[in-house]
């Protein structure tokens, strides 16, 4: 029976980051959710205090020779008691290696290899081992692709640029990008010799001329004179090879870094032509159980895999086989319960959406025999359609029923109401946050109705066709060149795949324009995904936003700086001219610990500023450079010139509700919601304001109603003269702000063919899956 004195985590005096000396009790063996605005201190409490202290306490009790320097620096907290061992179930940290598949990630592939080795040996009296069926085994894998199932091939869509351009304008970018090696002069000689005009659009060339430019293997030598990278003229003799054939020939030496760099823009990954993507050598692919080799079994969806296992069990009727199949089934069942039955074991982990990945991890934990542990989740509802959330809630309740403690950061109201305990943080973000709020206080802050925008209609469209990737097959869709478009549908329906393919096809000019005027043509594209900004301790907001030069320019142009012959480099903490020579501009001194993680303490020479005393004497409106970098953005906007580039860039941050951020803040300390908006601010802060496509992956992630309202206003404004496409699940945001919908539906399929439901919001909303 649990001791009543140990049924709560007891935290006293938590001051990590922006936490305001918090005292809080969190129930053990229950589910707790932490809610609040972006930057209000949720991550600081959950990760920097609770999770970090749990890790540190656990590691301290391992043999010292085992842990080395793994022990974390203590969190800034007076005391914390009754912490269980903690697991972090994250959406963002995972192996990005294409060899990491659903099967290897869940260990199901290991059991399946054991099953194959036992059965193949029993049928053929051969001596196969489990590892003989692994594509990571050099002796077992396909020799051509080394077990990746993929190979590089020439990409004709990238080799040919905009077909409305001429040869002189670079329609074949391989030759134009190689001007300094004489390739363009060679092209000119060849075209002159074969009467191929270089000043008419590529689309108007004859079929024969196009074939010559792409596939010619001309043996005639031309004398070429050109200017090399050093600006000196060189001459050489060379014969002409068509652009496509040049790339194909270069693939033979693709392992050379110089060759890869040269042809990278003109190649793409495709299914291996030798093993057809099955990863193993031909001999192993001939070994089959119930007419399927192991690679074919790993390409079955999880429901089909269960059926195949059932048939194997019925055919062989062996106790050992039965036990092994039961182990596999026990691993598969939680995945299917989480509605991931459409996946297959060969699915590469980096291609899973955040929502899929988190449910895979959660499914793994449902099989965990450990009890009494603590699970930490960062926005478990992120990436999930409203229809997926009940399955997530049920999984949480199963974990709690095993006497586990669950702590989550979340904004989804349905999820919050189903948890046992709620902690509200606020009242705002950054230095204005870090306090505990009552439900009434939190409700008052977040109950204002969000602004609704009129639905706009546009006639110009970009049409994408022949989209084939993951679960999209011969897919096509159209997006207005202006306005805000949302990609909606359940997790796994193909939204992230579609957005990625839109980006790739735009970059390779593989699209069709419909009713688009010259003034509405899109000439630039950005994609903002959910990857973290930086894990580098030296990365600061000021450097990521690319505003450090503008900041230092302000100080370098001051009269006092000119008198001392200080240039812009004197105001950089990375320069020996301006930084503190004791800490090297870090503002901290690293103390090496023999057995613990290194400790950083404030530098006593520069008092943590990172600058030398001479530089700190230069002041702009009462602030030295260190003071400036440690002042909130909202306050900086009040003192710098409204005509400056710096003002324009910082104003975007303020518009996005991040005026509390300081430029000297470490990038790695940003919460998920803050990191997303920092990325958006960086892109929006660039000078071009029209004819741009912005692709955003769940921009409302980590934001509460107030944050979302601010974001809606910004996106609505920029979408007036630009194309904005978002993957989104937030129904209120979609209802209030979105002009056009592409709905991939309520099913997460392995093969979505043709075209999804799409149209202007007001025309298709009643048919959409968001209802």
UniProtKB/TrEMBL annotation:
InterPro entries: AAA+_ATPase, ABC_transporter-like_ATP-bd, ABC_transporter-like_CS, P-loop_NTPase, UvrA_DNA-bd. SMART domains: AAA. GO terms for molecular function: ATP binding. It is found in: Cytoplasm. Keywords: ATP-binding, Cytoplasm, DNA damage, DNA excision, DNA repair, DNA-binding, Excision nuclease, Metal-binding, Nucleotide-binding, Repeat, Zinc, Zinc-finger. It holds the Pfam family ABC_tran. It comes from the Bacteria. Coiled coil: none annotated. Residues 481-748 form the AAA+ ATPase domain. Belongs to the ABC transporter superfamily. UvrA family. This is UvrABC system protein A.
């Amino acid at each position: 029976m649990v001791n009543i004195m140990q049924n709560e985590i007891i935290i006293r005096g938590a001051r990590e980051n922006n936490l305001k000396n918090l005292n809080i009790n969190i129930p053990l063996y229950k589910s707790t959710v932490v809610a609040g605005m972006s930057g209000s201190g949720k991550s600081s409490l959950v990760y920097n205090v609770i999770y970090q202290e749990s890790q540190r306490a656990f590691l301290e009790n391992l043999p010292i020779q085992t842990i080395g320097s793994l022990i974390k620096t203590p969190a800034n907290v007076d005391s914390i008691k009754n912490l269980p061992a903690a697991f972090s179930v994250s959406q963002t940290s995972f192996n990005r290696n294409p060899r990491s598949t659903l099967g290897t990630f869940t260990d199901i592939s290991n059991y399946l290899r054991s099953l194959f080795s036992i059965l193949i040996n029993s049928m053929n009296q051969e001596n196969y081992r489990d590892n003989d069926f692994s594509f990571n085994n050099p002796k077992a894998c396909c020799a051509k692709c080394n077990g990746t199932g993929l190979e590089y091939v020439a990409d004709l869509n990238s080799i040919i640029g905009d077909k409305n351009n001429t040869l002189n304008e670079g329609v074949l970018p391989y030759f134009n990008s190689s001007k300094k090696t004489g390739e363009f002069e060679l092209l000119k000689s060849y075209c002159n010799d074969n009467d191929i005009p270089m000043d008419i659009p590529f689309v108007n060339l004859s079929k024969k001329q196009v074939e010559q430019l792409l596939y010619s293997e001309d043996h005639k030598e031309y004398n070429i004179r050109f200017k090399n990278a050093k600006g000196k003229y060189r001459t050489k003799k060379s014969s002409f090879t068509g652009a496509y054939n040049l790339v194909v020939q270069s693939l033979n030496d693709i392992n050379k870094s110089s060759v890869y760099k040269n042809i990278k823009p003109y190649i793409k990954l495709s299914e291996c032509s030798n093993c057809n993507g099955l990863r193993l050598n031909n001999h192993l692919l001939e070994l089959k159980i119930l007419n399927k080799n192991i690679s074919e079994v790993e390409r079955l969806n999880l429901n089909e895999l269960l059926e195949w296992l059932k048939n194997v069990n019925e055919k062989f009727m062996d106790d050992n086989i039965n036990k092994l199949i039961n182990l596999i089934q026990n691993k598969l069942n939680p995945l299917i319960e989480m509605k991931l039955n459409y996946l297959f074991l060969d699915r590469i982990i980096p291609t899973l959406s955040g929502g899929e990945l988190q449910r895979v991890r959660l499914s793994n934990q449902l099989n965990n025999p450990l009890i009494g542990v603590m699970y930490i989740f960062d926005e478990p509802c992120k990436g999930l359609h409203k229809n997926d959330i009940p399955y997530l809630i049920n999984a949480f309740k199963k974990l709690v029923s095993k006497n586990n403690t669950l702590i989550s950061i979340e904004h989804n109201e349905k999820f919050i109401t189903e948890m046992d305990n709620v902690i509200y943080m606020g009242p705002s973000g950054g230095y204005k946050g870090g306090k505990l709020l009552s439900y009434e206080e939190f409700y008052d802050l977040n109950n204002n109705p969000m602004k609704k925008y009129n639905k706009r209609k546009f006639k110009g469209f970009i049409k994408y066709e022949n989209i084939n990737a993951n679960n999209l097959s011969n897919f096509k869709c159209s997006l207005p060149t202006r306005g805000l478009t949302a990609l909606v549908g359940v997790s796994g329906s193909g939204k992230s795949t579609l957005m990625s393919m839109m980006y790739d096809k735009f970059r390779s000019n593989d699209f069709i324009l419909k009713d688009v005027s010259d003034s509405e043509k899109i000439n630039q594209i950005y994609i903002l995904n959910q990857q973290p900004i930086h894990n580098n301790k030296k990365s600061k907001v000021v450097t990521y936003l690319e505003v450090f030069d503008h900041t230092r320019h302000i100080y370098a142009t001051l009269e006092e700086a000119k008198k001392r012959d200080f240039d812009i480099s004197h105001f950089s903490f990375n320069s020996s001219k301006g930084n503190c020579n004791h800490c090297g501009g870090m503002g901290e001194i690293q103390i090496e610990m023999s057995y613990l993680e290194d400790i950083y303490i404030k530098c006593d020479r520069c008092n943590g500023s990172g600058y030398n005393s001479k530089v700190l004497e230069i002041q702009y409106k009462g602030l030295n450079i260190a003071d400036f970098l440690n002042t909130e953005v909202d306050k900086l906007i009040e003192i710098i010139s409204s005509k400056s580039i710096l003002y324009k860039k910082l104003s975007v941050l303020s518009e996005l509700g991040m005026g509390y951020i300081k430029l000297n803040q470490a990038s790695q300390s940003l919460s998920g919601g803050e990191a997303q908006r920092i990325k958006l601010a960086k892109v929006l802060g660039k000078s071009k304001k029209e004819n741009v496509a912005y692709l955003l992956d769940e921009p409302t992630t980590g934001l509460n109603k107030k944050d979302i309202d601010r974001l809606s206003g910004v996106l609505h404004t920029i979408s007036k003269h630009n194309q904005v496409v978002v993957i989104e699940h937030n129904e209120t945001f979609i209802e209030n702000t979105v002009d056009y919908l592409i709905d991939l539906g309520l099913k997460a399929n392995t093969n979505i063919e043709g075209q999804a439901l799409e149209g202007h919001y007001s025309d298709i909303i009643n048919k959409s899956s968001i209802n």
